[in-house]
Amino acid sequence: PPLDLSDAALASLTYYENVNLGFFGITHQTLVSTDYTGSGDPTAATWTVLRDAIGAEDQWVQISLDLASFTGSSPVYIAFRYAGFDGDEWFIDLVQVNKTVSSPAPQTDISPDTVNYGDQNLFTASTAQTFTITNIGQGALTITDVSITGTDASQFLLTDLNSYPVSLNLGESITVDVAFKPTSEGAKTAQLAVTDNQLDALTTALLQGNGVDYNSGGGGPGSGGYFFANSLAINAPSHPQFNWIDISGTGTDIISLMLDDDAEGPIPLGFDFPFFGVSYNRVWIGSDGWVSFTDPTGLPGNQMNTNVNIPTEGGLENFVALFWDDLDPTDPDIVGKHLYYGTDASGNFVVTYEHYPQLNLDTDPNSWITAQIILKRDGNIKLQYLESGTSINLNTSSVGIENADGTLGVEYRQDGVGGPYFSSPLAVEFGMNDAALPVQLSSFTARGGDGFITLEWITESEVDNLGFEVYRANSRNGEYQMIDSYVHNPALEGAGNSSTRRVYRFTDRRVVNGFTYWYKIADVANSGLRMFHGPVSATAVKGTVVTGTGEVPEKFALHPNHPNPFSPFNPATRIPFDIPRVRGGTIEVNLSIYDALGRKIRTLVDGPLAPDSYVVEWDGKDEQGRPVASGVYLYGIRSHLFIQFRKLLVIR
What's CA 577's distance to the chain center, in Å? Predict the structure, then answer.
């Protein structure tokens, strides 16, 4: 009969034999097969010889044979093969198969067991791959750890929400996610390793990928001398920083003038802008995510909205492509859409596509982008990508620059291949010198105190920077005069070439309390080129001290003052307030004291503030420096994003 050894850990065959040899014996074999079906010609099956011998003659002898090689199999057949002559006899009796049943054993499986992430841009994470870890054996499996191992383990990101140890019965599983985020170019290999309660080797899945650098480039024969780098390009000679410029309150909104596949212009830049060796002072803004330096209005619509490789001769030319795709400013399903143009504080020309719709034939309200083009007075071109709708198709656009006849250009991205843009807030900058993408300021603020105003600015990177000059005026549009320079003040000396964040401060003590002053700073390159930043303003007020903690809070807040009540025994009461990160970097804030009738009696803060947790002090006096009377007063903070009031008590 067939034997079942599928559950056996150990197995053996025993029997008794008695051999009487005649003239001579030919064959006495014990055989085993795992592919015999139990019927038909047995010689057609595969048989393994367990024994081909005989024991002592004319007596009963016990034979024991090991079946360990056949455990785990079913069915298993045993056969005895005899060939002899007259007088030759082979007696077999008490045939028995003994087996020891194995304990249920768990088994770990990873699916998939190999993943190749392909080409992936440096410092950008790929789409995560989900791995399923399952117990495909009998008995409980305990997973004690999941990790990434191997030489290139740091190039892969493991997301594991499980708490170990985890016990899995037959068929139960857990999942982990692994993404590929290379930090250097070339092929990368690692293993996803699962440690369990079994004593055998780790169960692993192979991880492969290839790091490629789409973050910087250009400079080749067809580039016209332009290089590019994005804000992730830490290996490039220089790279820009993302710093969104909000022109919604100062720019011109032309969204109502735009038709599908349209262009509005010419629009004056306000300065001469060099582009591929030609100087331009005006642009046309396209409804399909680009600006052009030559009139494109004679082009058919399909040449305005159909993106192609950059450069390509014919069709749309002489352009900066922010998100060249078939966009539709007339889409009624997208709310809050705008197309602004204007200038920033440094006089650069800015075009902002805000909640700007992609062509969509259904009623989807989430197919939009918010991004901007910045044409800098120094000839550089900066593109900034803030956010996109959840259903936008990001794989059908072109990003880059092209000259007037389509023979030169730099392509950053084309139909989903190339550098990143909307994966996170990101900046891309094009310039003629890859080592001279200019000083990048992340903030510039002014704070007023008693007889002084302190300026603070933060650089994220500096290239070829000799230092800074400080300019002051009595009004925003007044005449700015230099009041200090790196030539005379070592605190204003630049870092030369640096990719490290640096904080600069300058205190102006030649001020009069109660007056508001406006400031600009200029960074000066070795070539003598000056790049201006600002303006910002602050008011010097007696008895007012504004300080920041350096910690960026998550939301706006006006906190209770201390001490409260406020009496002559205290020189001042402290009022804490919080400014979170906002679009544009700074926000105009007014914090004032009011009497019980709502009349303003003292302004403590009035000007732009960077994100920080602040404390302002009030000495209990009005604008004329007179002590206020006992009573209940209000203090309130106002901005275009936040308003809050609280009470304080003055006791004389």
Answer: 30
Condensed to tens digits (0 to 9), the pLDDT of residues 294-330 reads 999 999 988 999 999 999 999 999 999 999 999 999 9
Q: Which CATH architecture has domain 440-539?
A: Sandwich (2.60)
- Pairwise CA distance, residues 42 & 27, whole Å: 17
Is residue 29 within 8 Å of 49, Cβ to Cβ? yes
In the block, tokens 């190999």 appear at 114
CATH 2.60.40.10 is right for the domain spanning 546-650: no
> What is the second-level CATH architecture of the domain 8-101?
Sandwich (2.60)
Taking only the tens place, the pLDDT of each residue in 174-209 is 999 999 999 888 999 999 999 998 765 688 999 999
Quick check: do 108-212 and 440-539 share a fold? yes
Burial 279-299 (b: 16+ CB within 10 A, else e): ebeebbbbbbbbbbbbebeeb
Taking CB atoms within 8 Å and a gap of at least 24, the contacts of 268-274 are: 269/349, 269/375, 270/343, 270/347, 270/349, 271/347, 271/349, 271/377, 273/349, 273/375, 273/377, 273/379, 274/379
Cα→Cα distances 413→313, 319, 325, 400, 402, Å: 18, 15, 12, 7, 13
Cα–Cα distances in Å, from 375 out to 272, 283, 382? 10, 10, 7
At 517-541, the pLDDT tens digits run 889 998 887 766 677 788 888 777 6
pTM above 0.70, yes or no: no
Kindly state the DSSP code that residue 617 receives in the 8-state scheme.
Answer: E
